[in-house]
Design a protein that fits this description.
By secondary structure, the protein is of the alpha+beta class. The protein has five helices and four strands; from the N terminus they run βααββαβαα. The protein has one domain. 41% of the residues lie in helices and 24% in strands. α1 crosses α2. The longest helix has 16 residues. It is elongated.
């Protein structure tokens, strides 16, 4: 059995914020982020941005596979968000692990879903429900 423990780190998606808030290109990323935070604070009383407006900047993982235990961060400081997400789902394709996270169902996985759609990343094994592989019929 393979176990994949993971956590993502995010920053405001200022490009998405520009589009959603119709801010144009004249503002710096910092100004756009501040506008996003201010509008969110006004809307709900806190600055935590909606999940689709989070941009992934890091994914760290622990993989337990047989006797092996490996800890690392996917990509490096120059990796694009798309590359990080592709590497994450590639690990799922390769190891078919049990996923473990902290608030993964409420934050990490939904953000990964939104960002994968944005980058047109497919993740066949991740979304398998038993149609292509019967062993997934009851455990996904």
């Amino acid at each position: 059995m393979n176990i994949f423990v993971f956590d993502i780190e995010t920053v405001p998606d200022t490009d998405g914020g520009r589009r959603v808030l119709d801010l144009g290109d004249g503002l710096s990323d910092e100004d756009v982020a501040n506008a996003m935070f201010a509008l969110r604070r006004e809307e709900v009383g806190h600055e935590f941005l909606r999940l689709h407006l989070q941009r992934i900047v890091a994914i760290s993982v622990v993989l337990k596979s047989g006797d092996r235990l490996k800890v690392w961060s996917l990509g490096n400081e120059n990796s694009s968000e798309k590359e990080l997400i592709e590497r994450f789902f590639s690990g799922i394709e390769r190891y078919t692990p049990t996923l473990v996270s902290w608030n993964g169902g409420g934050f990490d996985l939904p953000v990964l879903h939104y960002r994968a759609m944005l980058h047109k990343i497919t993740a066949e094994r991740y979304w398998e429900t038993g149609d292509g592989d019967q062993s997934f019929r009851w455990n996904n």
